[in-house]
Amino acid sequence: MKDQIITKKILNWYDLNKRKLPWRKNVSQSKKHYYTLVSEFMLQQTQVVTVIPYFNRFINKIPNLKKLSKMPDRELIKLWEGLGYYSRVRNLKKTAKIIISKYHGEIPNNYEDLISLPGIGNYTANAILAIAFNKSYIPLDGNIERVLKRYLYLKKDKEIQKENLIEKKSIFGISSRASDYAQALMELGAMICKPKNPECSKCPISKNCKSYKKKDFDLAKITKKNKEKYFILKVYKKNQKYLLVKNTRFNFLKNLAIFPMEELSNPKNFNENLNFKMSNMNMNIKIEYLKNAKRFPSSYWFDKRKLDNYMLPTFTKKVVKYLEKK
Ligand code: SF4
């Protein structure tokens, strides 16, 4: 199958089957650029279905870059609450500010400038260039990676290294409809070449797919081991209130409200009460109930009856729920 043929087949399939997503709406160029920026930040660690209501709320409240650059952090974090990985929204605001001050409010349309912006790595730069600016880039997200691995039957360790996948993605060719094509490939992975039970009978490229020929759809993965981390979490309670502190100590949930915590390195006989997975970290947490609250900088008493009114990270909410169940 020649590249041009594969490109055409995937685009034809996309034209008939693409989902209606709020960031795919027919809007002005400047809105399209802004929508792409916001949606790509949201999609960095989160699935499309989860992102949709967040994206709609965000755009309704903050319809353009200028407004985003001036938005108070508190309100931004509230809008992001539940999506997790809060550094994304902080970086998004920083990026908006730089675009306003350095690029006259226009999102840069070249790789070097994009990659220099906070929160924009190789993947996001590729996605913005393809989707917003119709440039011939193929952003290698999890969906496209899966199609590629299956289509070419890439299984060995060296075959599934990122560098090799980046090289191999040229098999998909290029299209003058670069924006649609990048989204079409992502959509094919999300809707048809799904992690489990790919729907090969509906796939436009099944004819030349090596996994389909072999009837072997297992995906090889380079396994990243989660780091085991150990924490003592201190609970101070006064009537209906818990003491929370602003986290300036740990690299996760930076500047957000957490219970006072201490990290232990390789403790012996650690009996955890709670386990929480965050990024590549497996948090083993032991809870200590304490009576006399010492003075913590930037701390406050939080009323558990008003849990929903507070802007708290999911982690802290889960701890509160755990404590309340006890
Ligand atoms: S034929 Fe099946 S395995 Fe191959 S790319 Fe299509 S959906 Fe994936």
CATH superfamily of the largest domain: Hypothetical protein, domain 2
Beta fraction = 5-15%
Beta strand count? 7
Which value, in Å, is the CA radius of gyration? 23 Å
Number of domains: 2
User: Based on the structure given, which CATH architecture of the largest domain is correct?
Assistant: Orthogonal Bundle
Q: Residue ranges: pLDDT <50 for 5 or more in a row? A: none
**How many separate helices?**
13
What does the average pLDDT come to? 93
Q: Any ligands, ions or cofactors bound here, and which?
A: iron/sulfur cluster
User: What structural class should be given to the helix and strand makeup?
Assistant: alpha+beta
Percent helix among the residues? Answer: 40-55%
Q: What is the C-level CATH assignment of the largest domain?
A: Mainly Alpha
CATH topology label of the largest domain: Endonuclease III, domain 1
Distance separating the two termini: 62 Å
Shape, please? globular
- Please write the string of helix (H) and strand (E) elements: HHHHHHHHHHHHEEEEEEEH
Query: Major sheet: size, sense and barrel closure?
Result: 7 strands, mixed
Structural description of this entry:
It is a single chain. The chain has helices spanning 3-17, 29-43, 48-61, 65-70, 73-80, 87-102, 111-115, 122-131, 142-152, 162-168, 178-191, 210-214, 314-325, and strands at 227-238, 241-246, 257-258, 261-264, 274-278, 281-290, 299-303. The chain has 326 residues and is of the alpha+beta class. It has two domains: 3-214, Orthogonal Bundle (Endonuclease III, domain 1), CATH 1.10.340; 227-325, Nucleoside Triphosphate Pyrophosphohydrolase. Strands 1, 2, 3, 4, 5, 6 and 7 form a seven-stranded mixed sheet that branches. Strand 5 (274-278) and strand 6 form a beta hairpin. Helix 1 crosses helix 11 (178-191), helix 2 (29-43) runs antiparallel to helix 8 and helix 8 packs across helix 11 (178-191). It is globular. The chain starts with a helix and ends with a helix. The model has no long low-confidence stretch (mean pLDDT 93). Residues 147, 150-151, 192-193, 198, 200, 203, 205-206, 209, 211-212, 217 line the site of iron/sulfur cluster.
